[in-house]
Queue: 2 jobs
Job 1
Amino acid sequence: LAFNTFGRIFTFTTWGESHGPAVGVVIDGVPSNFLLDLDFIREELERRRPGKQGTSPRKETDLFEVLSGLHEGKTLGTPICFVVKNKDRKSGDYDTVSHIYRPGHADFTWHRKFHHVDHRGGGRSSARETVGRVIAGAVAKLFLRTKGISIGSKILHIGDQLVTDENSPEKLALQAKHENDSVGGMIEIRAEKVPPGLGEPVYDRLDARIASALMGINAVKSVEIGSGIASASMKGTQHNDPLSSDGFTSNNAGGILGGISNGMPILTRIALKPTPSISQEQNSINHLGQPAKVTVKGRHDPCVALRAGVIAEAMLACVLLDFFLLNKMRRW
Amino acid sequence: LAFNTFGRIFTFTTWGESHGPAVGVVIDGVPSNFLLDLDFIREELERRRPGKQGTSPRKETDLFEVLSGLHEGKTLGTPICFVVKNKDRKSGDYDTVSHIYRPGHADFTWHRKFHHVDHRGGGRSSARETVGRVIAGAVAKLFLRTKGISIGSKILHIGDQLVTDENSPEKLALQAKHENDSVGGMIEIRAEKVPPGLGEPVYDRLDARIASALMGINAVKSVEIGSGIASASMKGTQHNDPLSSDGFTSNNAGGILGGISNGMPILTRIALKPTPSISQEQNSINHLGQPAKVTVKGRHDPCVALRAGVIAEAMLACVLLDFFLLNKMRRW
Amino acid sequence: LAFNTFGRIFTFTTWGESHGPAVGVVIDGVPSNFLLDLDFIREELERRRPGKQGTSPRKETDLFEVLSGLHEGKTLGTPICFVVKNKDRKSGDYDTVSHIYRPGHADFTWHRKFHHVDHRGGGRSSARETVGRVIAGAVAKLFLRTKGISIGSKILHIGDQLVTDENSPEKLALQAKHENDSVGGMIEIRAEKVPPGLGEPVYDRLDARIASALMGINAVKSVEIGSGIASASMKGTQHNDPLSSDGFTSNNAGGILGGISNGMPILTRIALKPTPSISQEQNSINHLGQPAKVTVKGRHDPCVALRAGVIAEAMLACVLLDFFLLNKMRRW
Amino acid sequence: LAFNTFGRIFTFTTWGESHGPAVGVVIDGVPSNFLLDLDFIREELERRRPGKQGTSPRKETDLFEVLSGLHEGKTLGTPICFVVKNKDRKSGDYDTVSHIYRPGHADFTWHRKFHHVDHRGGGRSSARETVGRVIAGAVAKLFLRTKGISIGSKILHIGDQLVTDENSPEKLALQAKHENDSVGGMIEIRAEKVPPGLGEPVYDRLDARIASALMGINAVKSVEIGSGIASASMKGTQHNDPLSSDGFTSNNAGGILGGISNGMPILTRIALKPTPSISQEQNSINHLGQPAKVTVKGRHDPCVALRAGVIAEAMLACVLLDFFLLNKMRRW
């Protein structure tokens, strides 16, 4: 029931505020004697790093230290603790807004729940926290890779514009930034070569856990599996995936039937809302309930979808590894 | 980690196969000394009962027995066990298809996971299991009601047709049945007067848990919160909900910010795929992998959305009550 | 976090009050396709049944019904629900004491926690609840048996008298009964052929979980592993178990080192307090805090140790099966 | 199910090997806005620090850094991460024995479970890990103190010698050291002013959780509650604690009835085995199963009981705080 722990067997616990000294993650339930490719983990972190075009100019070098769980590069079977220092803290940027709730942000709800006014405290709701998820996801991917399972993602559209060769996600996001606005986006995440049998009905189903993992990412407002929202408009004759001796001949199910993987690719999509931080004046109230105008300064992504792909992949990887381990116990 | 247990503090465990002697639910974590209105639970069960127009003609009287946890009508604080007998079993209907995987069904994945060929065994993936969810949800609603929280749902569209005064969901569903087909649907679920502060970031967020609860219902293929999938196409200036001294002036967030309720109505939508059982011949394989044709006989809803509303409400009620109890611990 | 659920992978949930209509258990996490020997379960229930010499004269026939989870005698991998009706309820016996706290009983604490005055409600603290434990334990034993693991127990002493060929436990217990008194006892439980490697340090250790499982049995006031309490008085040269090429040459560790099984027999002992129900007048108070005398009528075991062996074995079996399943995940 | 996480609501997760760069703890479920007295935490760490007379000469300065969860000294309600560097690593001391199993140590079982030969890897089973427990326990004590609950411990005997004014624990432990031996000990832990009602029957009972928490401490081989092992030899007339209008007039129950606190002091005792590391030659085998002699060098406590009191108190404090928070949910 630890609120900052994700997973059941392969678990990870993140800690750290964006404006504190460091963020980190403790990964537990890791099989022992596995040689961990730390370079791959660094590459994954680089994928989520802001400071690239179209994303927040804040620089995070994201160098990690491993404080436990490895000996001569191999997993011990004990918890692995990664720590990443927060080097580039500029909390001054936030001062002017600190007692006014920023629309679309968690300031209001954190205040109601935890009774802090100063939202530097609420820094857990920052994207900075996802460093730990990406690290855990990279570890999970390394394990899954040895079973042939791979995970990738792509951005389908940014705002109402489809991503194409000419319209890169970065270009589309910058358009919003130039209007002092932000924009949402849609990402597809896909896992290939997932064996059939993963998922534990009826309350720890694969689809339910994926939905939880992805909806729990900041800014995600919908999760679809397979044909997703379109399924509501379909007929049974269209939606049912026929079987041939070569397997399923379509994948409306998105690789999941009855909460269990069916051997087809796992296919899921998430909608991300626009970054709530925008440089335009907005109506709000302060913590005393009085009307106030707020303009959010600081360095912000105009579009969180740009770097959410690696985070969503990470969460999916952790879910799949967890179910892979759980499924071992179903065989006597 | 019990796979058939839902929730963390207010929990319920369902058991029973659709073709076994009974189904039931054990509800735990119930505050004591609460007078339970059993008639309300019966009414909720009646709402999910098939056998009405447009739904499966199978009759389930759904009379329950309470075997524990109540004394003179009041909760003891101990587990409450409800048992509902399966009176109307006709497993004969299933015999012809029993070793051919029915497209869109969980037969294939249950076989791969649990190694049963006879899908009478796999009866946990039947809608019959949801009797327990509806009972637990009714209990949760009774508690929430005393805090002023209410939960309702409505069907937005059936297939590609909007529900209107003229086009009732039942009528639209029957159209599909007359074509020997089935059809999907979209449901909105809404909770009113939810206090701010419910949800436990960063991995037990309210939105993440709702997504899990709803995606875990059979046939659900997408879950949206607030403006949901539309958020991906929006700008920050459109999506951010401004605050005034009277509270939020719009609800794109669907009542949740940073994984915590914000005091606005909780708003969520689910897309349900068409019932996979259709009376037309479909291509499939048998359990030996040989091609086979299958026509699903038996009594089937042409549209699962017709009675999924009460199930979705039940899951949302259980999630909200759970977080309500959890939130008590945040105050020292 | 379900309070009435035991275990992590192989789990069971008990429900039912001693004075309600039935007690039962829902067992989850059971590997599928396992032929379950129901006769063995009946034999185990017979071992815990009161009504034999030296134990409570209350007759419990303990016939169970299986309502789910089995198909043609084999496990489906779904929850197995066992129900045992309460046939021999005589709540009248309890009436005279119902608002006076019985010394040594849970009346006082259940009232303080759950705010019931009538202790018929508190019937979960009755030994009757252990029916479910014995059933779950019998299921676990059947699985463990296929791996060669067996579990047994014996009573070492009753009160201050050693059990011998001449002094059977029943005979010693009857002596106390003849004095209108009750008496405690000490039981040793032993598991043979447990493979090394079971247990998950550092907080889900085998010894910690055994301690929890056994201390959680009514009336147990101490749990020892291996040389137990005597270890405190020993020197390292005495206590350390040397290793030879044939394995350990002694077993002060009781089969557990660092919270992990070492391949030697698991050896544990529990001390049970005397049955608190005695036919002598005792000083107490009523629920208003006023002094009152109480003499407990009804049918009571003079010594709970007589039938606690099978319950303790059951709990140990469930713990071992759980760790056996968990250990499968440690191998990649 | 995170194996290195303890607790249900107030939880802590420890990480770190004794021969790695650091050890640490992440504490979650902490109520927000609580001013944390870090000096008290330092004092508690000082109590467990080795290097005092009669304990291991290894010097651990145990200076911690707080990396998250606090803002201006107050809890944020987010996870608090404490890191303690390992400054005084001398792994050379261990080299000669590294492939021979040390009797009484976890080398053998860690090898069987995790497949490491080099026991530097297995450093989680070291007493060093308890730094995190003491920190979490100190945090819990600070919360409990505001409700008037206090926790203390004393050493009752060392080996077969009672602790007296003349015979301090340190003096008795040194006697064993002079004989190149080690010695066990018995500790009593006591919590005062615990309110009635803590504990969640029937599987999350207060006594069961205490047993788990204490048996999970290295070297503990028995846990007793109240009159403990002596209960087995008692009659009901002796053991039952009578009630008067002033409350219980004796405390054989050790403050717990039916798994729930009864308002009397919680009283528990643990037996600790002698430190397995001794400077005498012992019979063992190496990891290939060949007979070998082993003499354990390095710096070792002759008696782990000397500094186990503060660890046991810490575990008890965490258990009590957890149940205190859980109990809030029982009131509707």
Job 2
Amino acid sequence: VDSHVHIESSMMSPAGFAAAVLPRGTTTVVVDPHEIGNVLGLRGVRYMLDATAGLPLRVFVQAPSCVPAVPDLETAGAAFGAAEVAEMLSWERVVGIAEVMDYVGVLEGEERMTGVLDAAHEADTVISGHCPGLRGRELAAYLVAGPRSDHEVENHQELLEKLRLGMTVEVRDSSFSENVRATAWAVEKLSGVPPNLVACTDDVYPTDLRRHGHLDHLIRSMVAAGIPPLDAVRTATLHGANRHRLHNLGTLAPGRWGDVLLVESLEEFFVDEVFVGGRLVARRGSLVDALPRASVPLEEENTVHLTPPPRPEDFVLRSSRDRQEERLRVMVLEPDGTRGLTTLTFPVREGRVDISAHPGVCLVAVLERHGKGGRRSLVPVRGLKLKQGAVATTVAHDSHNLLVVGRDPEEMVVAARELAQVAGGVCCAAGGEVVASLPLPIAGLMSPLPLEELAPRMDALNEVLHDLGMDYREPLSPILGLALPVIPHYGITDRGLVDVDRQVVVPVRAG
Amino acid sequence: VDSHVHIESSMMSPAGFAAAVLPRGTTTVVVDPHEIGNVLGLRGVRYMLDATAGLPLRVFVQAPSCVPAVPDLETAGAAFGAAEVAEMLSWERVVGIAEVMDYVGVLEGEERMTGVLDAAHEADTVISGHCPGLRGRELAAYLVAGPRSDHEVENHQELLEKLRLGMTVEVRDSSFSENVRATAWAVEKLSGVPPNLVACTDDVYPTDLRRHGHLDHLIRSMVAAGIPPLDAVRTATLHGANRHRLHNLGTLAPGRWGDVLLVESLEEFFVDEVFVGGRLVARRGSLVDALPRASVPLEEENTVHLTPPPRPEDFVLRSSRDRQEERLRVMVLEPDGTRGLTTLTFPVREGRVDISAHPGVCLVAVLERHGKGGRRSLVPVRGLKLKQGAVATTVAHDSHNLLVVGRDPEEMVVAARELAQVAGGVCCAAGGEVVASLPLPIAGLMSPLPLEELAPRMDALNEVLHDLGMDYREPLSPILGLALPVIPHYGITDRGLVDVDRQVVVPVRAG
């Protein structure tokens, strides 16, 4: 039982995701369709249910609680309030409220979060949480408001405190971060795995899924960190089932649903055979039968609405013709992933800011793509390491507008137009043409390709990004998170440069 | 959290029960109002809810599943089928289906039990079980049908098997039986207390409640049997709350309901202070404030309907005037509590069987008292040890008709008429007058008296029974169970002598 997962992070359709994780031994997932919710609202959440009906993977959904992440600082495709959440909770297979990320809103009694939590209490449902760094009285206040779980922890002590307060801690080893070692440390302090420890994968890229696996990989990570194998398995079975009130799962016993894994060794946890509802569905890493294909109309829809089409001037910082130079605020990507700010002076030529004077600086554009007014922003960024070419993506957390990175407007236009053409995804342009492309036509987030075809394409794209100068392990990661207005201390949305701490848009021009 | 309790067994009103158990540290009870359900049907169950509204004791109710215990072999005041169960499940504070005792009906797919279980599945609610001696394939079949808990076990191995099959085992130390030692043995085999072990008191007489306590006594029993104190507490808190899906109970943490006990020592577990919802309700064995008194009309109602009033001839076994003797089937109460059968020859005088020839034989009469036809039966019984006088009771599991035991019809009439007079209860007659009386005017099962007054009256009644020859520790117990048509191998209902194994009524006349 995966207690918290965003299928969209796998970049596969729900059916493709199911085909990828079932042979790894994941038989039940509790899904937060937060990404597609930001793009398509209730239709997006509905899609996750429709596209998983009849699959052998048991898919339960939590109603996304924070769509959009920060209402006034970005333009998402939809907004969920109490009414939308109440409606989702009335749907079959919707089993709770997904990670309540806006903990500041919760603590301040902000209207949207209060309404969402009231709807959850009214339905007497599970409320999942997300509150990195929250401790002591503030954490207690958050718990009183309703959320009772978390996977975000900044350090070992915080994880232990959360367990001790009866919170469900979701042990995680995702493509972005892990809390497995902190968990192992806390488990030792508690002299054993408590019943409020469950397992989640949260976000796993297709590349990592193919290389490392899914919940099976998480169990191996836990065992490697010193958690006894049987206890590691319990977090991903009984504990998760209990947390989500799935009373027929998590125990191998008469009268329960017969989901069973056969493994050679609990320590190594390489899954040999997978049974769902008593039926063999996968053996030695492969499905026994192809999954049934549901026809879901939304999969044929182009959700990338760009009017007018991207133009070179979208990627040019203008100044006045009579200025020689311009002092601009520049977002700085630090090696630890936080985002700071500096001010640099750029030469101005014919009314256009010339960024070439600072070789470490790129431009980041965000183009609203949901047909909601078409705002477009442009902000200089240092630290991304892209030396030439351009990258465009419609996967841009959490509003998933079109985000384009580059140093040259012509290259940026090529990349952006390619995505309008293929209905979304990620692509690279260099030398005036598209050199790598990962089309994600389902909501601009997901591909219909199976893992075996998709993962190599993402590898290829990362390789191109390496060649263009981005020497990260996974160069896409910092790009896909640039638009998040909740990571300290800055972000870039279609509204412009967001000061996360003050929750305001600040002008790029510093002078 | 007491996971399974019949308030009626305390012989106190729900408010009296609450006043008695709160100072002992019981703050939540999951009640099976099975006894009053048999007397008054849905009105009786409704009464349990109405009479506990606003009390600091948290009272949740499970819908009784087997009213009456055996439909065709006794006359109860009501019968519950799928429709009644579904209705109860729609009421607030009704949190499941109470012990499904008719496991034979379940295994045979009998219509009533199938309907009741379907109603429970439809409501996705907790289904509690009761299946003494069931093992292996039959136990698996019972689990598949829905029930998932039990407190009835015939031996250690059975208890261990039930825990291993994921059943919730309710550890119990009631006035009638205990499984604490079997539990301690199983816990050792499992190397620890599993999460599916919860605590219940089931049936506790006022006398035992006063002498030994309630859940506090059970925790002391568990600790004495070798279960670690913290684990013993967990069964009666977290585990019970989880089992009954009471997600705000069982954990001392922000956002949960603040039910807290202060004890000097976890081992001795004498409760010093009791907080409910954060408010101090009891200290050093006494309530801080008197409980609010709800006015519940049903408490003023006489539910003992006997038309015509009991007559001497109800207690005379007739024969024909021309017979000299009669061979009769005689139920035999064995020292271990089972009930066998023998055949004895009795002299007949003037058409009346004379039982005085067999000093160890009493007569047991059951008079239907719900206004449902007024059947009356009379059966000779050996082994009750009552040498003189008569005992009458409207507490006669499970249908709670009027049951009278005696050797002399005149004494039996006196006892029976007394109960018609006081609206039910238990009383003793000797020498032509009532010598001890425990009026239970609420449904013929419960008294409005507080524990401090009720328990001494029951002690006095037991003492009289001792004097009349019944040298049991608690002489009332064998009498109150005589009418149960589910204890091997015989019982006595208003229909007559019931062969429990064959589930038929057999005639008293053997010849």
